[in-house]
Design a protein that fits this description.
The chain is α+β, with helices and mostly antiparallel strands. It folds into 4 domains: about 180 residues, 2-Layer Sandwich (Alpha-Beta Plaits), CATH 3.30.70; about 100 residues, DNA polymerase, Y-family, little finger domain (Dna Ligase, domain 1); about 35 residues, no CATH class; about 90 residues, no CATH class. Helices cover about 35% and strands about 30% of the residues. The strands form 4 sheets. A 6-stranded antiparallel β-barrel has the order 12-13-14-15-16-17. Strands 2-3-1-4-5 form a 5-stranded mixed sheet, with helices on both faces. Strands 6-9-7-8 form a 4-stranded antiparallel sheet, with helices on one face. α9 packs across α10 and α10 runs parallel beside α11. It is flat and about 95 Å long.
């Protein structure tokens, strides 16, 4: 049995913000059950299974919730049902202060509710997928509801009456999920919201510690205790903060933002030690305090039809080791900079799932395309020009000495002229450039991108077309 509580407003003339509503709602819910899940800032679902001996029947439990809410000065609606989704839809769609749905009557009770109510449970009715943003899910739900309305459907009962096989053939598993919601059927388990309390462990050393091996031996039991606290609450560590009390009587703090919630003590210890190695403390350590910010544990569901990617834990460890060797500014994914300079790029966080999705989406939209592969350092070339067009190219990198069969250009580009310098090395640092670019097809069939630096009169090979 589940109870859904929706805060409709405040009593006694109180004006509360969204955060205050959430705090009052959590305080009210935790008074009755430790297992609860926040749906939004005004709605919470409680697992009341096994509480009959303490609070009595479901109707008596709902009345007790309302009495406690009145004591706290808030006005709420309460709905109890055998499934979470039925309780949430009832508390949203019905105006009764207390609604109790008997087991097996979920579909009948919510059948008269309008279809638009599904937009309020877009992040609750479907199975959670962190790769799909909430805005995209809301758009998909609105689009599907508009289609249902064009079919002549107006209520949840109309959607529940559709043939499930025909609905699956048109909308796939998502359509079936929403029909289950319209029937009041459960589609996922309750994920408890962690209690807002600090997860912290501390250790005092008998003598100052300066080596990382000694520090790691002290961090292991600390993190094992921290992970045990997190596992008891059904959560994992999303952010780790380590504070070191140094012999110089100052705190040295490092914060580790994890790519995904992790509940593995060995993995957390490795990541912390690698982070401290890349940013070592300036003095010996007398005391260590590790604090974790919790988040719901990550549930991974692999697919036979998607490209396999490394686990978040292995990837984060690999990136931490690479950042120690190469520097944090040299590890990541290249992204375009806000400039027209052809060789300019920035380094962003590495996320294989996002990059793969972008490439697949681009391939589906544009079809087969030619890929320009640019050299990190342009190759110095010697180019013979006839009537203003290149006719012979000679360069290293496997190009050799080749005649030009066809050419296109020139395309003149320049920028940052206000930072003009007289040195090629300074050109890279200031961003100034001025060049004439050509696409040339050589006698062996290969196509290269070459350009002439108009400042120094030199030719370079920028890359080739694949």
């Amino acid at each position: 049995m589940f109870a859904s509580v929706y805060v409709a407003g405040s009593r006694r003339g109180r004006s509360l913000s969204g955060d205050q509503f959430s705090k009052d709602l959590l305080s009210l819910a935790r008074y009755f059950s430790p297992r609860l899940e926040m749906v939004d800032a005004r709605t919470v679902v409680l697992d009341v299974t096994g509480l009959r001996g303490m609070w009595g029947s479901p109707r008596a439990f709902g009345a007790a919730v309302q009495r406690k809410a009145i004591e706290q000065g808030i006005h709420c609606r309460v709905a109890l049902a055998a499934t979470r989704i039925a309780a949430v839809l009832s508390v949203y769609g019905r105006t009764d202060a207390l609604t109790v749905i008997k087991p097996g009557r979920e579909a009948t009770t919510i059948a008269t509710l309008p279809l638009d109510i599904l937009t309020r449970v877009a992040n609750f009715g479907l199975q959670r997928n962190a790769a799909i943003p909430l805005e995209v899910r809301n758009r998909n739900v609105s689009r599907m509801i508009n289609i249902f309305k064009r079919w002549g459907l107006a209520t949840l009962g109309d959607l529940a009456a559709l043939p499930r096989d025909a609905l699956f053939s048109r909308f796939g598993t998502e359509g079936v999920m929403w029909q289950k919601c319209a029937c009041g059927e459960e589609s996922q388990l309750l994920i408890p919201t962690p209690e807002n309390r600090p997860f912290e462990v501390a250790l005092d050393f008998e003598w100052p510690v300066e080596g990382f091996e000694t520090l790691a031996s002290g961090l292991r039991p600390m993190l094992e205790s921290l992970v045990l606290q997190l596992s008891h609450e059904g959560v994992a560590a999303a952010v780790l903060t380590v504070r070191l009390w140094l012999v110089t009587r100052v705190w040295y703090t490092r914060t580790l933002q994890l790519p995904a919630p992790i509940c593995d003590s060995r993995m957390l210890c490795t990541l912390l030690v690698l982070n401290l190695k890349s940013h070592p403390p300036p003095a010996g350590i007398d005391r260590v305090v590790v604090t974790a910010i919790p988040a719901p544990s990550r549930i991974t569901q692999f697919s036979l039809f998607e490209k396999a990617v490394p686990s978040i834990e292995q990837l984060s460890t690999l990136l931490a080791r690479l950042k120690i060797l190469m520097g944090s500014e040299r590890c990541g994914t290249p992204v375009l900079s806000e400039t027209h300079h052809p060789n300019a790029f920035d380094v962003g966080p590495f996320d294989p799932t996002v990059s793969s999705a972008i490439h697949l989406e681009a391939a589906e939209e544009t079809g087969p395309i030619a890929i320009s592969r640019r050299f990190h350092l342009p190759l110095v070339a010697q180019v013979t020009v006839d009537c203003g067009c290149p006719v012979l190219v000679s360069a290293s990198g496997g190009i050799g000495r080749r005649s030009v069969e066809r050419c296109a250009g020139p395309w003149r580009s320049s920028g940052h002229w206000w930072e003009q310098t007289q040195s090629v090395d300074q050109e890279l640092s200031t961003g100034y450039w001025s060049r004439d670019e050509w696409d040339v097809e050589l006698d062996d069939g290969s196509v290269y991108c070459i350009y002439r630096d108009r400042t120094h009169g030199e030719w370079f090979v920028a890359g080739f077309l694949d």
